[in-house]
Write a structure and sequence with these properties.
The chain has 241 residues and is of the alpha+beta class. Among the domains are: 54-129, Seminal Fluid Protein  PDC-109 (Domain B) (Ribbon); 179-239, no CATH class. 15% of the residues lie in helices and 20% in strands. The chain is built from three helices and nine strands. The protein has helices at residues 39-44, 54-74, 124-133; strands spanning 90-92, 98-101, 121-123, 179-185, 189-190, 196-204, 213-220, 224-226, 232-239. The longest helix has 21 residues, at 54-74.
């Protein structure tokens, strides 16, 4: 639904200056207002009269019903240059945005100020959206207020159940976790340098009937694991520290 700028406004509070002391014999053309009107009388409404000043009544009712219909359609009265806005008043712009008055404005309230004048109006819809999207605890809610205890979210490996008894994740790059093959033929087989390594090797002779042996363990980098002589030794090593 397109939102159009409102072109009607209540010109004044109806019968604001009317006389509230009502005599038995009323004076013609004198406005009276019954400030002791009861609920029952209000629900009954205006009684029949043979002669009334219908143009005035029609104009009043046209204004009232026109404004009420706009409230019913939009939920909030659209902005009007005819309205005298008080500070903190709300209005609906033609762009569908709700605005809040930072200062009074209007034809009899310091001058008309367009909704684009940020010195007089602020985007209240944007304020609500910013507040909803604020994930930094804008209300300053404490743990105790929601039934929780205060918690320190600066964790150590130990606090997360991670300790030096847990194996590192294998990786191809150097450092803890490096996984690589090792091989030697006719010479000593030494583990790669640095750190501590877990290893598994197979040693085989260079003859058909030569027995093969297996070896596994952990040792410091550079440790000689096997001396195959004229045979071969091969396997893998995993740096664990």
């Amino acid at each position: 639904m397109a939102i159009l700028e409102r072109t009607i406004s209540m010109i004044a509070q109806w019968a604001k200056n009317a006389t509230t002391t009502i005599p038995t014999n009323k004076i013609e053309n004198t406005p009276y207002r019954n400030n002791s009107l009861t609920v029952a009388q209000a629900e009954t409404g205006q009684g029949y009269a043979a002669q009334i000043d219908s143009p005035n009544y029609n104009q009043r009712d046209w204004l009232i019903t026109g404004l009420l219909m706009q409230i019913e359609k939009c939920g909030l009265l659209p902005y009007s240059k005819l309205t005298n806005y008080e500070q903190n008043a709300y209005t609906l712009g033609t762009n569908g945005i709700i605005y809040q008055a930072l200062l009074p404005s209007g034809p009899n309230n310091g001058g008309v100020r367009a909704l684009t004048d940020t010195g007089y109006w602020k985007n209240f819809s944007g304020t609500i959206s910013d507040h909803i999207n604020n994930k930094s605890n804008p209300h300053g809610v404490t743990a105790a207020q929601v039934g929780a205890s205060a918690s320190n979210h600066t964790h150590t490996l130990a606090s997360l159940g991670i300790n030096d008894t847990m194996a590192p994740r294998p990786q191809n790059t150097t450092g803890v976790g490096q996984w690589r093959t090792i091989y030697a033929e006719g010479s000593n087989l030494a583990l790669p340098s640095g750190g501590t390594w877990a290893y598994y090797v197979l040693t085989s002779g260079n003859q058909i009937n030569s027995p093969s042996t297996f070896r596994a363990g952990t040792a410091a980098g550079g440790t000689i694991t096997d001396t195959p002589g004229v045979g071969r030794v091969f396997g893998f090593a995993w740096r664990v520290a």
